[in-house]
Specification:
The chain has 8 helices and 21 strands. It is an alpha+beta fold.
Length: about 450
């Protein structure tokens, strides 16, 4: 049966309505709080179709003084992700915020707080942060047979109950597989799957999140600066992990931020990586340019604590391509630089492993250095028997899903870092306290 032009014309409005309904965008993941400073906040989100998005926000108790972010149009280039800047915030305030999607405000309201402007005014405020390692989301049709490589997503609810002020993801946040890394679309889809976990959404919306990458966020196991799909990985990572600041002089995802009297320096262990060198060059993982950037930044830092974060252990001495020590000369040069510059307050956080531990590097002529390595949040844990880390602190090995809480507390003249490693159910597995006074270079 053929339809007449009159019948076709009558059907057109119905077809338009059906198409419009199908194209009506919704939020696929987020909102997630990105970096929040004293006078600017960032909100990330992903929609499931092209849309116009912006954020409405107001200081608590002043709903009549509503502010708006600029409008951002999401499209398929970066999987409908957007980061929106809220530039009308002030220090030490609490704000409510809601997402507007194609001109309509969503019903869900969330809150965020800006840091206090304490400098030169009051002692540094206490700070609690959460730190997590490998995150794996299972996906039907892509998993190896008879294996379940991820689970326990309730850990994110446990983290939220501990009320951290921010969260750091120390690498292996997406777990690219052979089906993903060879195309930009595949890489973006895998990041989307990791971000879209239902149990994760309240945590994303409540506190700022900061991430670095490790091997499975990048591609093949030992890929580095010569990796063919490097741009796919970098574009995808930045689409899902907005940076506090882009360092113009460096490649990749190196960045930094400050909260209270803690400076955080996030290193990139992939963009400069060359661990399959020829006879005329040595292995490297950080590169001379990035190490020099770190040197300059920590020399100029006035923070009590300088926390250095990497997607590979910095202090673990085991001869393993996933450790910085594999690039032996670079590793030695980095540690010697830290000794020479006599920088107080150094503490390391690392990912890239499937077990947790605390490494302590004892110095005869300076203070001991500590590297807290985070194992899996939701990926499957593994043993560490094949890796001889003779700097591992007794009782610090963890072979189950876990996260860490770091509390920076105490009066200005006696600040301390308390580390608690927690099970996915919220049980304390071990704890250590390191005073700022213990992280001081020896007198000459």
């Amino acid at each position: 049966m053929f339809l007449s032009p009159r019948h076709l014309t009558a059907l057109l409005p119905l077809a338009f309505v059906a198409t419009s309904a199908a194209l009506q965008a919704d939020i696929a993941a987020g909102p997630m709080l990105g970096h929040i400073d004293m006078r600017e906040a960032n909100v990330w989100l992903q929609t499931d179709a092209p849309s116009q998005v912006r954020v409405a926000y107001a200081e608590q108790g002043q709903s009549d003084a509503l502010r708006w972010s600029d409008t951002v149009e999401t499209d398929n280039t970066l999987n409908h992700t957007a980061t929106l800047k809220l530039n009308a915030v002030e220090p030490g305030k609490k704000y409510n915020y809601r997402i507007e999607l194609d001109g309509k405000l969503t019903e869900e309201q969330n809150t965020f707080s800006t840091p206090d402007n304490y400098l030169g005014r009051t002692p540094p405020p206490d700070l609690r942060i959460a730190v997590g390692g490998a995150h794996y989301v299972t996906e039907e049709g892509f998993e190896p047979p008879y294996q379940i490589l991820g689970g326990g997503y309730g850990i994110f609810s446990t983290i939220l109950t501990e009320k951290p002020e921010l969260m750091i993801w120390a690498g292996n946040t997406a777990h690219l597989r052979d089906s993903d890394w060879a195309s930009k679309s595949g890489t973006l889809k895998r990041f989307a799957k990791a971000r879209g976990v239902t149990e994760l959404q309240p945590l994303l919306a409540s506190i700022p999140h900061y991430g670095t990458w490790s091997s499975t966020d990048y591609g093949t196991a030992n890929a580095g600066k010569y990796y063919s799909y490097r741009q796919h990985a970098e574009d995808s990572f930045k689409a899902y992990w907005p940076q506090p600041v882009e360092v113009a002089s460096l490649d990749g995802i190196t960045t930094r931020f400050r909260r209270s009297d803690v400076d955080f320096f996030i290193l990139d262990t992939r963009s400069y990586r060359d661990d399959a060198p020829s006879s005329d060059r040595l292995p490297q993982m950080l590169g001379k340019e990035q190490i020099e950037w770190l040197r300059q930044e920590i020399i100029n830092s006035t923070a009590t604590f300088k926390v250095i974060i990497a997607g590979a252990p910095i202090l673990n001495p085991a001869d393993n391509r996933s450790n910085l020590s594999y690039a032996e000369r670079e590793h030695s040069d980095l540690l010697q630089m830290l000794r020479n510059e006599r920088i107080p307050g150094l503490f390391f956080i690392s990912g890239g492993k499937y077990y947790g531990e605390l490494t302590r590097l004892v110095h005869a002529n300076s203070y001991n250095l500590f590297d807290l390595t985070l194992g899996p949040l939701t990926a499957n844990p593994k043993e560490n028997q094949d890796e001889l880390n003779f700097f591992r602190m007794p009782g610090s090995s963890i072979f189950e899903r876990h996260f860490a809480l770091l509390d920076f507390t105490g009066p200005e003249e006696d600040r301390a870092l308390n580390i608690r490693v927690m099970s996915m159910e919220g049980t304390e597995l071990w704890q250590r306290t390191i005073k700022a006074s213990q992280l001081q270079p020896a007198d000459k």
